[in-house]
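thought: fold this chain, then report.
action: predict
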Amino acid sequence: MIRIKALELPKIPEGGGTISNLAFQKQDPNRCSVFLDETYAFGLHVDIVMQRDLKKGLFLSEQQCNELADEDLYFKAMKRCMDFIAYRPRSQSEIDSRLKQLGVSEEIAQRVAGRLAELNLVNDAEYARMFVESRIRSRGFGRFRIKQELIQKGIESSVADATLDKLYTAENEQSQLVKLIAAAKRKYRNETDQKVQTNKITSFLVRKGFDGHAIREQLKASE
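observation:
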C-alpha cells in the first residue's frame, strides 16, 4: 500500500508580519507565495488571496496567518482528491479514506466531499454503473463477484444490487457462462477424470462469482 503523506500547516512567523510581496508559483499558477517582511512565509491558493483582498503593505497578525493557512488546507485537500480521481473514478468511501490519510479536520473533509459531489465528480450510483459495465465487459465476472468487489469499494449493498439488477441480466449471465465454460474446458482438457474436470470447472466459475445452480444447468446444456 502506498503511504500517503498527511497535509501539514506551514510554520507561521512569530508575531505575523507585513505583506511585502505576493507572487504566483511557477509550478502551480493557482497558488501564490506570500512574503512577510521580505521573507517567504507560506503559500496560499489564489482564491484565498482574492477573497481576503490580500495585498502589499497589509499587516497580518500571527492568528490571521494561521487562519489563512488553515483555510488553505481545504484547497490542498481538494487538489489531492482531484488528482486521486483523475487516475480513475472513486467511490465516496475511497474519497473519505483518502481525506483521513491526508489528516484534515472533519469540517474540511465534509467541505471537500460536498464540493466533489456538487461537481458530480464523486457519485456512487454512477461509479457502480461504470464498474459493473467494466467487469462484465473485460473480466467476465458473475453477479456475486461483482457485488463483492463493489462492497469492498465502499458501495452500499442496495446500490450494488440496484445497479446489477439493471445491467446484469439473465442473458448477460448465460452469455458469460457459455464463454467461460468453453474456456475452462480448454484449460482443463488434459484432465481425464470427467468428475474431477467438472469439479475444477465448477470451482473456477464459482470463483468468478457465478451461482452454483446456474453453473450446473449450463454445464448440462453444454454436454
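thought: worth noting. The first strand starts at residue 17 and ends at 24.
final: C-alpha cells above.
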